[in-house]
Task: structure prediction
Amino acid sequence: MDRLFIFDTTLRDGEQVPGCQLNTVEKIQVAKALEGLGVDVIEAGFPISSPGDFTSVVEISKSVTWPVICALTRGVEKDIDVAAEALQYAKRKRIHTGIGTSEYHIRYKFNSTQEEILERAVAAVKYAKKYVQDVEFYCEDAGRTDNAYLARVVQAVIKAGATVVNIPDTTGYCLPWQYGEKINYLFENVDNIHRAVISTHCHNDLGMATANTMAGIQNGARQVEVTINGIGERAGNTSLEEIAMILKCHKGLNIDTNINTQKIYPVSRLVSSLMNMPVQPNKAVVGRNAFAHSSGIHQDGVLKGRQTYEIMDPKEVGIDENSILLTARSGRAALKHRLNVLGIEVDNGKLDKIYEDFLRLADKKKDINDADVLMLAGMERSETQRIKIDYLQVTSGVGVKAVASLSLQIAGEKFEAASGGNGPVDAAINALKQIIKRKMTLHEFTIQAISRGSNDVGKVHMQVEHDGSIYYGFGANTDIVAASVEAYIDAINKFVK
Ligand code: KIV
Ligand code: ZN
Result:
């Protein structure tokens, strides 16, 4: 079997998504989960882009042992200097440098020429080689780059010492056979191509990221750049879990990865929960409905023989159907086990606090599922917030005006307000605004039920504008009005000091 290297960019391309930002501790948690999953390379950040990214690359380098830690740069000396410094503690390290190679980039972004870009590409690789042996070069917008010119760049950067060459379809424009032909063209026209690994990096703007990545693999690429749950710029990147399971289901392709597929689901849940980014229910491999059979004909078929309608066993991706439900009778040990399965380590003090919340929720809701457990772990994280809800009472209904009374604790001091509104959420937010007297505009407001049933936990995502900047807030509660106020407060906590 041929070995395919899995390069995970959840913490770089994935983390660039508005609202998905993680702090350093959370990034380390994700990096360790990726190490446990078996990825070969972790792209830990873009160190020159912010002090937070720099620190995260340093701390991930210290915390992770086996995977190569990679840092992104532009093809600029200063970027490469900073990346090398951030990688100083990595046991195995890689600098990922590059430049735009399509006419759009050369002409409009750089106001330059093909020859000058070629020289800059070679210079960037040679400069990075002074710091590390393992240098990856990306030809940004390779998807729309003329193949003959692309081949010249690839040949030149390999000659300059690049160990991996990345061919990104940056805009998600390519059709699968075009992307496949591009990789094939490189194998046929670049003399020294066997001295480097060719990598795919596909975006999902037209829903073809996974298909394009597979076309790249079929034509010789042996590294794929992917993210958990397919998160990433705009419509996202190729999903790690889709590629891993395609190769597992289609053994005839004779290509293997180091991914322990049974860890896919826990890592997917961990990333979704930490980034407050829900996974669409019909998402391949990890969506809530990926293994749910609802039609009578399908249910009947699956009961007679699982393989009639299932091409993968949910257990292969780490979904243990028997252990999904927890109830009010479950003990601390069962809750801790579930948290561990979901990739969350807690000490006894934290467990006690989460267990108290768990019992309170289990009183209101019959079955506690994975999404609830993750929400409870998240509730625990919000304990350090400056503004907290003390109480909230709302009256609403048909033929009556909605009225809300709200009490908040702000840095330990109590504030109260009451207000009417156009519905219960509006009334509660109006009361909140009476207490927090800042100019704020609500831009986006989405409510999502996590699982099924009227006793479900509602998740609320909000975008609040304050002083020209956008802040993201998240709340989760069985009461959706309370979840909405929590989300608004979560956003406010990000700018009120
Ligand atoms: O999509 C892209 O081209 C990228 C590069 C920076 C690798 O993310
Ligand atoms: Zn990208």
User: Anything to note?
Assistant: The longest helix spans residues 348-364. The chain has a mean pLDDT of 90.
